[in-house]
Structures are given as structure tokens and as C-alpha cells.
Amino acid sequence: MASILVVYGTTEGHTRKIAHFVGHVARRLGHAATVLDASLDPVPAEHDAVIVAASVHHLRHQSAVMHFAAEHRHLLNALPTAFFSVSLAAALDDPHHQVEAREVADELLAETRWQPQMVRLVAGALLYSKYDWMKRALMQMIARHDGRDTDTSRDWEYTDWERLRGDVEEFLARLPAAAPEPAPPAEAAEPAAAGLAAAPG
Q1: How many angstroms from the chain centroid is the CA of residue 189?
Q2: Is residue 176 packed enough to be buried (19+ CB in 10 Å), middle (13-18) or exposed (0-12)?
Q3: What is the pTM assigned to this prediction?
Q4: What is the rounded CA–CA span in Å between residue 119 and residue 106?
Q5: CB–CB of 154/128 below 8 Å?
Q6: pLDDT in tens, 71-107
Q7: Which residues pair with 55 in a beta bridge?
């Protein structure tokens, strides 16, 4: 069993949902998982592996995630780590949006000098119910342009949960196996055996 730290940055709450899903998958596989907001400045040193999930807004990830990755980059680069970049661009199949989503993820890694073993682009959500009227109108306009859902009376979730589950399972399967408990020295067992032999039958 490994101790997994799941760190997230979120604006409307969808990436928090993704982070808790990641923690749930880890626990189902027998690991201990701690899920924390990046703004709480979690400590990677207390864990065996770290998974970071952050959403994209205005072509940037949350500043708290940027700070966490930069502040702890030396330790993160010494641990098994994964980065899940959550965006609406990742939900679109055309190459232009996929390249855009990858470039935003690469920008965070370049700025923080963090080098995770796994990087995945995760489709996010249109949370119309969480937006103020101006952002709702803006997101509806963008959704119309990209051929996405424009009904603002409800939220639209594009995350492929089974694909995300597979990515988490793949990452956790790569973790080094825990070292077996060392066997007790042979001489430590001899006195007990001798005592048994001398005991009356």
C-alpha cells in the first residue's frame, strides 16, 4: 500500500470532484489517499506519490497549483507524480483544441520545472449554474462557436470518468512495489527453539 497525495486547484468545483474521484480510485486499489486543495500548501514529503489536478481558465492554471509545483519541484521530481490538466479544450476532438490544451499544460511544467511521469488532458465541464451572468453569456458564446451545449438552464459535464479511472490505475500500477519485511536473523530464533527442546514433554 502506498500513500498518495492528490492536490487540486479548482474555480467552480469540477476539478475538486475529479480529485476526489482520483482519491476514490486509489483507495479502491488498496492505497491510502489524501485529497487537498493546493491553496492549503500540502506537504509532498509525507507521501509516496503525488497526483495533481488543475483546471484551465483564460489559458492558465490556478496560481495555487503553480505555486505548489514550483515550491516543491525538487521533491516532486524525486517522487512518482502525475498531472491532470482539466479544460474544455480537452473535450473537443479537433487537433487545434487538443494542441492548445497540451500547450497550456506544458507551460505550467516549463514555468515550474516540474517533470511528472504522467501528463493527461482531462475534459472539464460547462457549469452554467456556477457562473455570474456575464461569464454565463461569454461561455455560452464560446460553446456555440465550438459546437458545444448552449442550454444555460443546466450544467454540462464532459469528463470521461472511465478513461480517467484507467489513467489513475495505470499510474498507480507503475509505482514501485513496497519492499518486503526483512526476515528475523536465524540466531534470534535459536534461543526460542532451544527452550522448546529443553521443556518437559
Answers
A1: 46
A2: exposed
A3: 0.84
A4: 9
A5: yes
A6: 999 999 999 999 999 999 998 888 888 999 999 999 9
A7: 86
